[in-house]
Amino acid sequence: MSKLPNTSTSIFTIMSKMATEYNAINLSQGFPNFPVDQRLTKIIASLAKKNVHQYLPMSGYPPLLQKIGSLVLKSYQRTVQPENEILITAGATQAIFTTIMAMVKTNNEVIILDPSYDCYEAPILLCNAIAVRVDLNDDYTPNWNRIEKAFSSKTKMIIINNPHNPTGKIWTNTDFESLEKLFEKYLDVILLSDEVYEFITFEQHHIAVHTRKKLRHRSVVASSFGKSFHITGWKVGYLVAPEYLMLEIKKVHQFLVFSVNSICQVAISEYLDLVSVNQLGAFYQEKRDYFRKLLENSRFKLLPCEGTYFQVASYASISDENDVDFCKRLVLEYGVAAIPISSFYANGKDIKCIRFCFAKDNKTLEEAAKRLCMV
């Protein structure tokens, strides 16, 4: 009998497969199609000839741990102990999976805010726990009345994603104050904060859990070098958590992965001496603005995009089709692949919105927009 009976092929796989079959422009999956920084590829080429191909310590390459500690301090003014409070993971998905497996027990409840990324629920179910799905408002802001009602004596964890995939929404200070009040009532709840797009923000920076003194002693923060440095295929991320939580996470990590890709860790460690993550926001804001300008004459209504490299668009004035059928028709008739937002909801909520990834070179964005303006 299946342990995940309701889990099927993800919409990301389906849409990317359709894009390949019909030679469509793939704006569905969230990965860049432009070259990696040549400084990073030169580092990798040099390291290939050096003795960096064996197991590294389970927690991660010590110089990389130190540099992440410096990055957290510089970015968020939080001091963490690299050897005890940071863990290198095989991507943020593994980081999230490992955290849930370590923290959540049978019949615990974990609150997920929908629309949500699809990697959250599976490990909860594999723990024989209960995923409590709570819809955000239609403008993708947290609905604190609904969230508070979802808390109970069985609640073990709440998962938040900020900046938010798929919507690009960023939490406000008021949102965090509401969460902090809830945590004062429910003292055993742990916060898992998915912040993989933390450096891809625009007019305003996101508020990191690292900066919330009332929360961070009960929080696990997941980050991603893959997202930050356009190297999603490397699958290297990291967790930051207080030592008492990290000890439990490492117990699972050592039997799930043990040690993450050595050459990639060393390369990223060296690259951090050359690059500034503070430049990422401006880089992607230029792409966001360019893509939005290209779609000005389309019939799509573009929703605000405050962070991430995704643009949500409403097609309500174009068609009454459900969003899955509309996305499939976009591929078949116009040669552009997107993601239906309903796939991020447990209940399949359909408000006629789809997601485009604008982490593409300008030529790709121009041709995609040309086709979308014909819809």
Automatic annotation (TrEMBL):
Annotated family: Belongs to the class-I pyridoxal-phosphate-dependent aminotransferase family.
Keywords: Aminotransferase, Pyridoxal phosphate, Transferase
InterPro entries from the UniProt entry: Aminotransferase_I/II_large (IPR004839), Kynurenine-oxoglutarate_AT (IPR051326), PyrdxlP-dep_Trfase (IPR015424), PyrdxlP-dep_Trfase_major (IPR015421), PyrdxlP-dep_Trfase_small (IPR015422)
KW Kinase (keyword) present: no
GO molecular function annotations of the record: kynurenine-oxoglutarate transaminase activity; pyridoxal phosphate binding
Pfam families linked to this entry: Aminotran_1_2 (PF00155)
PANTHER family found in the cross-reference section: FI04487P
Record-given protein name: Aminotransferase class I/II-fold pyridoxal phosphate-dependent enzyme
NCBIfam families hit by this protein: PRK09082.1
Cofactor(s) it depends on: pyridoxal 5'-phosphate
